[in-house]
Design a protein that fits this description.
Helix content: 40-55%
Order of helices and strands: EHEEEEHHHHHEEHHHHHHHH
Distance between the termini: 51 Å
Oligomer: single chain
Number of strands: 7
Strand order of the largest sheet: 1-5-4-3-2
Structural class: alpha+beta
Length: 288
DNA sequence: AGCCAGGACAAGT
DNA sequence: ACTTGTCATGGC
């Protein structure tokens, strides 16, 4: 089944939102669109001003999935959240204003819990480029063909917990995930066995959901907060990776205002993107 | 060619 | 409760 949708979004920056490091499965095409697979649905998405165009392809088994529906994508892209209001709050702090103003169109996506859980276990002590390539290969080897993008590349779904959990470390070897391999398999098996349950986690408050995550081997404070934020839409999650630690030390020595605690993770994404962008600009300057 | 990366963990203070 | 060494791999 194929379907096209349009959505209205403002403020919104599709490219920055998909490529800022919160999601690893969107690929820029030469025509300015991005291709990816979300819940088994092969999608191509592009932005034209305030309009978002979506081309969806769902094979028979998922043609009835809610991921083929407009409401799903409105939620996925966080278009139901009043970002203008959040921006007004964040801009009360001068440094946070600077971060927001650098890329105000970034939104925190509501991604699939299980995919986020596995993906951020892969992410530990790893760089975004390599995380993307590892996950791409994982999907190619163990996922299912979900469709093709407009230039003919086959798009693969994220492998199910059932599939991933049935693998051995030898099976995973081609991914070169190093010491993370046991954690990846273990996490998939926890989901498969119901010990880690999306429904249960959603019913918990952020603090308890975080504690639950910390019981999983390979999941520490940073990954736990990424899953809370990106996979469970618990916006209190505030992942502290090396960039954020650097930003807190250099840009926010007095900490962040208490007023943002409930949505700290959304603010975090502006800080993260600002910090990484500033660093790459500085590097360019040195090399010239 | 090294340094670094959306870190976690165990062992040691 | 904090600090430190170690871990596999490849991007840059």
């Amino acid at each position: 089944m194929d379907k096209e949708l349009t959505l209205q979004a403002s403020p919104f920056d599709l490219g920055a939102t998909l490529m800022c490091g919160q999601a690893f499965r969107w690929t820029p095409l030469t025509n300015g669109a991005y291709s990816g697979v979300v819940r088994g649905v092969a999608a191509e998405i592009r932005q034209d001003g305030k309009t978002i165009h979506l081309k969806l392809h769902g094979k028979k088994d998922i043609a009835e999935s809610d991921a083929m529906e407009e409401d799903f994508w409105r939620s996925y892209l966080a278009l139901d959240i009043d970002y203008a209001k959040l921006h007004r709050l964040y801009r009360k702090d001068p440094m946070l204003k600077k971060c927001v103003d650098f890329a105000p169109g970034i939104r925190v996506l509501r991604q699939d819990f299980y995919e986020t859980f596995i993906s951020f276990i892969v992410s530990q002590n790893n760089n975004i480029s390599r995380i993307r390539s590892i996950i791409a290969k994982m999907c190619e080897l163990f996922g299912d063909a979900a469709g093709k993008d407009s230039i003919g590349n086959t798009l693969y779904s994220f492998p199910s917990a059932k599939k991933l959990g049935s693998l051995t470390e030898d099976d995973l070897a081609p991914l070169k995930t190093g010491y993370r391999a046991p954690s990846i398999l273990g996490a998939a098996r926890l989901v498969l066995g119901g010990n880690i349950s999306e429904n249960e986690l959603r019913s918990l408050n952020a603090e308890d959901a975080r504690k639950k995550h910390l019981t999983v081997h390979g999941v520490g404070p940073k990954v736990a907060d990424c899953v809370l934020l990106f996979g469970l839409a618990k916006f209190e999650g505030f992942p502290k990776d090396v960039w954020i630690k650097r930003a807190m030390a250099e840009l926010f020595p007095d900490g962040l205002p208490d007023s943002i605690i409930a949505t700290a993770g959304i603010a975090q994404q502006y800080i993260f993107h600002y910090m990484r962008s500033e660093a790459s600009l500085a590097k360019l300057k040195v090399e010239s």
